[in-house]
Every structure is written in C-alpha cells, then in structure tokens.
Amino acid sequence: MTGRNAFYAQSGGVTAVINASACGVLQTARHNSGEIGKVYAGRNGIIGALTEDLIDTSVESEAAVAALKHTPGAAFGSCRYKLGAIQEHRGQYERLIEVFRAHDIGFFFYNGGGDSQDTAHKVSQLGAELGYPIICVGIPKTMDNDLPITDCSPGFGSVAKYVATSLREAALDLTAMSRTSTKVFTVEMMGRHAGWTTAAAALAAERDGDAPHILLLPEVAFDKERFLAKVEDALERYDQCVIAVSEGVKGADGEFLSATGLKDAFGHAQLGGVAPRVSDLIAGKLGCKCHWAVPTICCVRPVTLPREPILSRLMPSVALRLSSRSPAGMR
Amino acid sequence: MTGRNAFYAQSGGVTAVINASACGVLQTARHNSGEIGKVYAGRNGIIGALTEDLIDTSVESEAAVAALKHTPGAAFGSCRYKLGAIQEHRGQYERLIEVFRAHDIGFFFYNGGGDSQDTAHKVSQLGAELGYPIICVGIPKTMDNDLPITDCSPGFGSVAKYVATSLREAALDLTAMSRTSTKVFTVEMMGRHAGWTTAAAALAAERDGDAPHILLLPEVAFDKERFLAKVEDALERYDQCVIAVSEGVKGADGEFLSATGLKDAFGHAQLGGVAPRVSDLIAGKLGCKCHWAVPTICCVRPVTLPREPILSRLMPSVALRLSSRSPAGMR
User: Fold this and answer.
1) How many Cβ pairs closer than 8 A exist between chain A and B?
2) What torsion, rounded to 10 degrees, do the Cα atoms A194, A195, A200, A202 define?
C-alpha cells in the first residue's frame, strides 16, 4: 500500500543546509512509503506548483538523495514569491489546491522563512475550507534565526560559524598589520531586523580585547557620537577596532542607515552598503585607515562543492511536467 | 660548527600561505644548521629590525614550527612600511645593517610583494657597499600574482581557488532564485593593477553560459555602453548575469572607477566599492534586482583556524629584545 503523494518546495534565499532539509524530507518519505507515496519537488519553489512544473524525486538514487546534504544552492530552485492574503489572491490558493488534487498530493512541505510558514498555514486553512484534506508542514529555513517558536533554525548555525571564523581571521590579519596599516575593519552582516548573525560574530572573541570590539545590532538605535567614542576607545586600548554591523541598523529616527530605495518581491526594502557608510564616518572623523567588507550569502556558505553537482542544474533531465496546459477546470 | 644567523620578516597584506613560507625558512635553516645559526623573525616585519624587536624562533618546538603551515594571519606580524630610496633614506638602511651586525645576521629573508623584493635588493647593495657580507633572499608573497619573473606566486593559488569556488556557489544561488529575485550579482575582486584574481573567477565556469558572464579586468579600460550591452545580453540568454570586477578597473580616462581619495603607507591609492558602483549602474539602467559583494582578504583565506593559535598572538612570550636602547654606535 502506498500513501498519498507529497509536494516539497524551497523558498527564499538559500542557506548552506536547505538541501539537507530536502534530504531529510525525501529520506523520511522513502522510509515511510506506506504513508507517503512519491515526493514531487516544485521547480523554483511554490511557483513550480502554480505552473505545474513538478520534479519527480522518486527517480533519484539513494546516493543522489544522500548527496543533497552537501550540495550548495537550492537543488530544486527557490523563489521569492509571496502568495498574498487569501481574500485578495484566493485564485492562487485555489490553483494550488487544484494542482495538488491532480497529483494526489496529501502532504505539503514548505521549506522557508516566516512568509513561507505563513503560506503553509494559509494553504492548510484553504484546504479545510475547500474540503481537500492536506497536511501542511512548514520546515524552518533562515540564516537570520528570527522564526517565532524555533530556538535555533537550520541555516543559522552554519552562518554563525562562518561569521565568527571569518571575523577572527580578519582580526588576526589586522593585528598582524595594524601598526602600520589598517586600524579599523568593518564587516557588514546580514539580518534585516534580527541581530543574531551580528551577535554570532562575538563568538570570535575569547579574551578581553579580542575582536569584535563593537557590534551594531538592528535592535539598538545607532548613536553616532556614542559609536565614534567607542571606536576611539578601542583604538586607544588595542590599536585596532573590529566592527560587526548589521545591514539593518537604524538611526533613532527609525530609518535604515543604508537603504537603496529598492524593494524586493516581498515588498521588503533592499538594503546594502552600511559598512562603507560606517567606515567613511570613522575615516572622516578619525582619519585612520579603514577597510570594510560586505560578504553576501555566497561567502556565508561553508559548504564544499561536490565534484559533479548532483541533481545537476536544478534537475532539468528529470523534470516532470504532466501537462503543459492547465488541466480541465483549472484557470 | 654553526653558521651565521638569519633574519626573516613578513611584509604587506598577509596571504593564506605566508606562514607556510615562514615554516619553509625555519625548517630549512634547522636542517642546515651548519650553515645557518638561529633564525630571528622581525616583529611586524622590517620594523622589527629597525627597532631591534627580534623574535628568537629557535626556542620553538618542531611541532610549533610545522603548525605554521596551517596558521592564519602573519605569525610574526607584518607591516606596510617602505624603506624608500637609498639616497634619501640611507640612515634607515645603515640602521638595518647595524642591527644585523649586532646579531651576526648573515642571511636576510624578506617575505613580501614587489616592494619587499626591491628592499631586499637594496639591502644587498648597501651591504656590499658597507663591506658587510649578507645574503639577501626575497621570498615571493602576493595574492595579486603580479611579481615579475615568478609564474605563480605563493598566495595566488589559494585566492584563485577561493574566488572560483565562491563565485560558483553564488551562481548556484542565483540560478536557484533568479526567476523571482536577484538577476545580477557583482563581486569585487582584489588586484589593483593585475587582473589575475578576477581572471581566476573564470575557473568557476565549466559549460557555455556558466557564471561568470562578465570579467572586468584592470588591464582593460571600462566602457560603460559596451558593458551594459553585455549585461543585457547575458540577462536575455541566461536570465541572470554574474560579474567579477577588479577593484582596480579604470575608465578610458585612466581614473579608477572607485577611488576613496586616501593613500596607504606605500603611497598607493586606497580603493573600495567598485562593485556597488557597477551594481547601481545596472540597477539604474536596467531596473532589475542587483546584489553585490566586496569580500576582503578575511574571506579570501581558506584556512582552518587551529584550536589554539600557535606562536600565540605574535609570540609575545618569546619576544627577544636584546637591548631596549640602541647598542653603542647606533643612531
């Protein structure tokens, strides 16, 4: 006996371990084949369901599935696509349920951050409303570690390790050179509203005086004078100053220190470049040599590339598209 | 019988392997104790010689010396300090020779880039002129791979690997997301006048269409219109565009695309932030979502931190300062 099929999708910016979560879903489903049939993955996340672009993972070997644990990127493709409120975008939710019905999907695993958890919840509600039984499970994924209820979300651990290691290495470089070269190093950390990533930089310090000397968290309003005084104090004490600054740091007026004026698909303001602003501020006031870095997710993925990326390039060869048009009755 | 002593110093920005070069010097000297006596390391590079701040490496165990191979930073401290022309700064060169004479230094190993090789050459010349026999050996160190005569300098290989790996990972992230999110990713590469590091990013590509799609080398004048046309072309073909841009890219007018107006101790213009400029250019013209990253040396050091950094913190406990004042006859 085989259970109903499952649909799995990856959402949002990928972490170092999102494919490990995929591996967990696939392996667990295989070990419980009496309850769960095939697992279909959505190509490019939830969009794969809306466009009926499904990937049949059952054709993949055990080895290929196990290798997901060490595969960078989002093996099935991800997206930044928000379904929106049911009231205003009911059609999209109905479309989802209809695609699920066409493929006998009884389980919906959505691997993402806060918005994705919310979507899983809404699909669950609508399934009940439309009389389509579906078990919806949100799988936490975020490097920001800002998901409610979870204590430590998959994705945060690897970022914390990366951030602390890089910052310690940068500090060793600075110590090796600060007598005649760079005195201040500012590194920008991801995390729009949550300071976990920036706070993780503190793991680099073991002894009094170790870097980082200053953390700028998004939860604490930036105070220019107080900040510059702290930089001066660190320079006086340690002849160097290492700063970890969150991309989401705001002034007392509630404005981001560095907003580009652009918004992403979720309507979130796109940020970037607070490190150079902070660095310029220090160089302008104190006149010392400052360096800064803005590593992005690409640097924050301490994974090793396999020789041959498995499920190669979003699995184009095993893509399953049961119909190129919408089945009868679908809009 | 023991040979004359050696002086070893590290100079300039540290690479992932500068301590491996130090290990090579120390081990080779130990294996040739009939010809080379003690190896003294300069604290913070050549400054350690000028201030007679020498570190006696002979007290370190074989294990500690071997562990240098995997130790980040510059174990003995580095500096950006240029001795200048002999004609104008003869006093400094004479001071060097006098410190060398006081410690019976017959070998001078200077581990650095182009300026350091030049300094080793000058010390050699002055030694001959002052009748002080000294063998001066420049040990190449640069991530830029721009040292004359050398084909591949220690420091470049690790950077090339890091750059290509990171870029490939970033490209996988982009591919996973580009349908609904970031379309253009620009990463800034170090290398002021030499495009080796940026060119190494090309190692990430295996197949036609693979990232990087555009390389901006400092050797080729930046042409805005041609560049934007290439970005549009990549977006049309691949729905994404990954760009590796050298920090030292210049316009047709010979001006750096991004100069901060500051200069370092060697008188070199301090650069930074060409990636955000390029990114803004694309976002402004094409209106798509762009991301950029400016990793610095801290990210470009694919080393593993030992549990306990050996020769801890620039070896403060084994520092050798034969005299806190200059010996008689020294200025």
Assistant:
1) 166
2) -170
